[in-house]
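ugh finaly. both done.
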Amino acid sequence: MDTLIVSCVKKNISFFCETLNIQGSNFTYINQITVLPSIGEARRALLEKDYDLIIVDSPLEDETGEDFSRQIASNSISLVILAVNNEHYYTAAAVNEKDGVLVISKPIDKDFFITALSLARSANIKLKHMQTENSKLKQKIEDIRIIDRAKYMLISYLNLNEQEAHRFIEKQAMDLRCTKRSIAEGILKTYAS
């Protein structure tokens, strides 16, 4: 799990790194930890690399980190933990948790943080599985669209009915040992010209 810590407080950075390293040695899921002092630098880093876990230690030098946390949580599968001062916890939680940000209050209890990491890890694994399934479904839908367009071309140009067009694509795929989609793409190229 590649981790980005956005914090400008050395004591908190040490706490997060030590706790992550303890977790890493116990569960071997922390690969690399990157520490940055500002949201601006974190935004630039995210343009170059994706992180599985992002810990934002609010407030930061350039902003509180709440907008950044919500944006990352809602636009990626990265898990985002926002650490806020105890007096701001309930307000921050009410606003940020709607977008999938895990909000914790400071000072942070080590055992509580380890539990939050475990929950975050479990959620991340589930989210990645869901993303994989979503990608597979999108691919299937796209395959069906292309095959249906190819069937329409066969119906239009070769005067086949829908069942014959379907059988034609299936037979070609079996005979040539390739996917129905690649046969359909070939048909579209042939008749679209």
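ok and the 2nd:
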Amino acid sequence: MTVAASRYAKALIDVLYPNKAEAGLEQLQRFSSLLTTQPDSRRVFENPTISSDRRKALLNQISSTLAFEPAIRNFLNLLIDRNRIDIVDEITQVYQKLLDDRFGIVRARVTSALPMDAAQQSDIAEKLQRVTGKKVRVESATDPSLIGGVVAEVGSTIYDGSIRQQLQSFRKNLAID
């Protein structure tokens, strides 16, 4: 992440925290998603040859439709003024991390061989919460090569309980003996 994205995200969370911080994240994510799904919009917002007044008018239409908080609207107008809309995705990611830190939340990427239902995700989140001592939000993915079990990534720590890993360890032990 760039230093600029970190500074913008920190400034925004300082303005919105605690009452409107989560709503701000959701609105940033919607705007970022709009720019991703509508490449023409991204080109307009990131084009410095289009006057900032025209870009702000478009933003005001979008923010009215999407019911953005005034602080988010002002923040995005500031990014337009400074020609920094191009880093809104990074700002959103940093903002989410800062918000998670303030709420004591860690994100865990849990990969399993088959899709997990809500009960399984909840069970894994509960176990990871005991291990980490923090509230855990699970983002799940599937990878059939795991054969069975799960691999959980929490920050830089990896908890590998997959059948694939157990078979690799078994193979390694056989080769040594």
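summary for the 2nd one i guess: The chain has two domains: 3-100, 105-176.
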